[in-house]
């Protein structure tokens, strides 16, 4: 970035970022799927200072999240400009956030806001100097700490991400410079018949808490079974959806986290007992069901609605509170994060 580059006034960047579901069963910290609904962030700058930063929020987080410079999107934009060598001390940021992705439910809300903020931070720079999608992916994954929600939020579709051992550079494809990237991803198109259903409870589970429940070590047999299933899962998601049930079996995380989301675990157990490919979405507690379009998806939806409304185990959360569920069939997104830069008038 040339010395003295500043964010542009007189323009606004409108960003859309999809909600995402990570893990998909055995693909812990690696697999992600973009869902066709998500968040909007409109960003602009004017002459001023960071003290003048303002965020206007509607939807998730409205009335709870900060509306000043301590908002995650503002911090992320300013951190990105620092990382890219942009001089931003003389501007105030104005953000309008429309949040549809629920927070702390396992649909990638934190990845979405980070990706939206970085996409806006790049778009507000002069044309020709804007970091590209791969730069946004890299920085977002570093901030989030793992790439599995960030990749589908940036690129759309079905993503397989990887990093380096012990936080080093991610191994690069043959013939490509390693470039010191910490994370990389391969983007696949999901099978055209793939349908995703989500049941979203009205209780939250912080990802940090859910990660704290994982064991440091696992038996080799469990790791071997899991690697076989995650390989099979790619085949199921792209070519053979009839294998989704067996391919979504996980040995790395779901059982260890079940005590923190008993209602989700009970719902998944009841659905899997009927042969449906039900898993925890991300770190939970949303339940994700993958199915083939047509009769199987219709049956899965009917069962998901019936079980999530039933009295009993599925109505009790981790703290003993009642759980209410919202069931959605969001469709799949293949575009990822998109941005339009408008010239502002007046
Ligand atoms: N749009 C947003 N604006 C500001 N902060 C947000 C936004 N979305 C998420 N956050 C912050 O991230 C937290 C949720 O992140 P967390 O990683 O726990 O869950 P998640 O990203 O929704 O789920 P998962 O990582 O399992 O998919 C929120 O409680 C909030 O602090
Ligand atoms: N792979 C992550 C996804 C949630 O961010 C986890 O399960 O902790």
From TrEMBL:
Residues 237-304 form the GHMP kinase C-terminal domain. PANTHER family: HOMOSERINE KINASE (PTHR20861:SF1), HOMOSERINE/4-DIPHOSPHOCYTIDYL-2-C-METHYL-D-ERYTHRITOL KINASE (PTHR20861). Pathway: Amino-acid biosynthesis; L-threonine biosynthesis; L-threonine from L-aspartate: step 4/5. Signal peptide: none annotated. This is Homoserine kinase. Residues 74-157 form the GHMP kinase N-terminal domain. Belongs to the GHMP kinase family. Homoserine kinase subfamily. InterPro entries: GHMP_kinase_C_dom, GHMP_kinase_C_sf, GHMP_kinase_N_dom, Homoserine_kinase, Ribosomal_Su5_D2-typ_SF, Ribsml_uS5_D2-typ_fold_subgr. GO terms for cellular component: cytoplasm. It holds the Pfam family GHMP_kinases_N. It is found in: Cytoplasm. It is an enzyme of class 2 (transferase). Gene3D superfamilies: 3.30.230.10, GHMP kinase, C-terminal domain. Its EC number is 2.7.1.39. Keywords: Amino-acid biosynthesis, ATP-binding, Cytoplasm, Kinase, Nucleotide-binding, Threonine biosynthesis, Transferase. The gene is thrB. GO terms for biological process: threonine biosynthetic process. The keyword Glycosyltransferase does not apply. It comes from Galactobacter valiniphilus. One of its GO terms (molecular function) is ATP binding.
